[in-house]
Write a structure and sequence with these properties.
The chain is an alpha/beta fold and about 425 residues long. It has two domains: about 170 residues, Alpha-Beta Complex (Aspartate Aminotransferase, domain 1), CATH 3.90.1150; about 250 residues, Aspartate Aminotransferase, domain 2 (3-Layer(aba) Sandwich). It contains 14 helices and 14 strands. The strands form three sheets. It has an eight-stranded mixed beta sheet with strand order 2-9-8-7-6-3-4-5, sandwiched between helices. The protein has a four-stranded antiparallel beta sheet with strand order 10-11-14-13. The protein has a two-stranded parallel ribbon with strand order 1-12. Helix 7 links the parallel strand 6 and strand 7. The radius of gyration is 22 Å and the shape is globular. The model has no long low-confidence stretch (mean pLDDT about 95).
């Protein structure tokens, strides 16, 4: 074209979690049955929202209002309900319904939050990184995502000294992102670490973003700790949603809580721009928003959350046990969300290793794909070709650690055990060659 129409950050739009699906479909077409362990969709893996939650949604379909537009920021009654719940937390930040803004899922929120930042303003995020955040942040700036380290030898806790140094010596950093519970590691940060990060932000006049999509899926004795409880007076955005909790990922219903916008005029103007951007779309999905006060306000909801947390804790225990005596990998038991990260130790992987693939056509295609990829992606491709299990390479999460992420979502107990036993066997067989 006579002018270059490609955005400067287009090359940074990478989402390994979904991109590997194309390869999986190709391998499936060649005759290898596929087991999808790449994406966090509980419904795809056999879970259903409880019957009473589904009944709430059924009844809302008959509400004429659920078929129309709602206010740009979201259904007023739902925003008031959520604001009241924030304000009910003792010692936490106080908000109004005007501080709650709905989006079509957190993917939409992430795109707006980064897309309407000044291009020179950077957000420091964790590594391993969740691809939606890292790609959006890199795309908005046109440069690689800036990151701080999560330490696999300290249960994937943030390296707070790394955060402090990155902030101190890079004045383009305007904010810090954290995910707790974390995706892909399942780490849940203790309050003292969260407050230390908040203090760094306060000292350097930064704002914070907390992706709290898994905030109610915590176990191992960890509390359900919300950003409004620990952030103090730091301007912040907390991201929430119902996709992983009901679970209802197809609802595309998420929101942000804008905290302490009165503490900084520049942050207040930025927050206002997010709502202005949302006005261009008129509104977000109405019916899922209408369900929130009914479902979350029901006494059965806390029982539902407790049951799911216990379920994922049991599955985490089962999964970690399969790798208990494997010297080639580092596996930390997750304390939240529903993922398990398996990290290969330094020097374990090399370009000579492979898994036997019985289907000759599949083997030929896999071997054509592994010529110029990271060592962990090579393992992931061979795993797919040999067993049909599709996991996500850890290097796809904006990090230098080699490994993979698998979910804890399979609802069939026998099949889930087969998945983890097969993964363990594949590791043993691969590194032995």
């Amino acid at each position: 074209m006579r002018r270059n129409i490609v955005h400067a950050g287009a090359g940074n739009l990478s989402y390994e979690i979904r991109e590997i699906v194309a390869v999986g479909h190709e391998i499936a077409a060649l005759g290898q049955p596929i087991v999808w362990e790449n994406i966090g969709d509980p419904i795809e893996k056999g879970e259903q929202a409880p019957e009473w939650i589904r009944q709430v949604v059924h009844e809302l379909v008959d509400e004429p209002r659920s078929w129309g537009y709602c206010d740009t920021a979201g259904v007023p009654a739902t925003r008031e309900f959520l604001a009241e719940r924030v304000n009910a937390r003792e010692g936490g930040v106080q908000v109004t319904s005007d501080d709650i803004v709905f989006f079509n899922g957190l993917g939409d929120a992430v795109a707006k939050v980064y897309g309407f930042l000044r291009r020179e303003a950077r957000i420091l995020g964790p590594s391993p990184a969740y691809s939606t955040h890292s790609s959006a942040e890199a795309a908005h700036s046109g440069y690689n995502h800036v990151t701080y380290q999560l330490d696999p030898y300290k249960a994937w806790m943030p390296d707070v000294d790394d955060i402090r140094n990155k902030v101190k010596y890079n004045d383009s950093i305007a904010g810090i992102l954290l995910l707790s519970p974390d995706n892909p590691t399942g780490a849940v940060y203790p309050r003292e670490i969260l407050e230390e990060i908040a203090e760094i932000a306060r000292q350097h006049d930064l704002f914070l973003i907390a992706d709290e999509i898994y905030v109610h899926i915590v176990y191992n004795g960890c509390p359900r700790l919300r950003m409004s409880q620990w952030v103090g007076d730091v301007p912040s955005l907390a991201m929430r949603g119902i996709s992983k909790e009901y679970p209802w990922p197809g609802s595309r219903c998420g929101w942000i809580e804008i905290l302490n916008k009165d503490k900084d005029q520049n942050f207040a103007v930025y927050a206002k721009s997010l709502l202005a951007a949302k006005r261009l779309e008129v509104s977000s999905t109405t019916l899922p928003q209408m369900s929130i006060p009914v479902v979350i306000g029901d006494p059965r909801y806390s029982v539902h959350l407790d049951r799911r947390a216990a379920m994922f804790e049991k599955r985490a225990d089962e999964a970690v046990a399969f790798f208990a005596d494997c010297d080639a990998v580092v596996v930390n038991k997750p304390s939240g969300a529903f993922y398990l990260t398996v990290m290969f130790k330094d020097g374990v992987l090399n370009e000579r290793q492979r898994l036997p693939i019985e289907n000759g056509v599949v083997r030929e295609r896999i071997e054509s794909l592994v010529g110029n990829v990271t060592p962990d992606k090579r393992f992931v491709y061979y795993l797919m070709g040999a067993t049909g299990i599709v996991v996500v390479p850890l290097t796809g999460f904006q990090c230098n650690y080699e490994g993979f992420r698998v979910t804890l979502l399979e609802s069939d107990d026998t099949k889930r055990a087969w998945i983890f036993q097969t993964l363990r066997n594949a590791i043993d067989q691969y590194i032995a060659r």
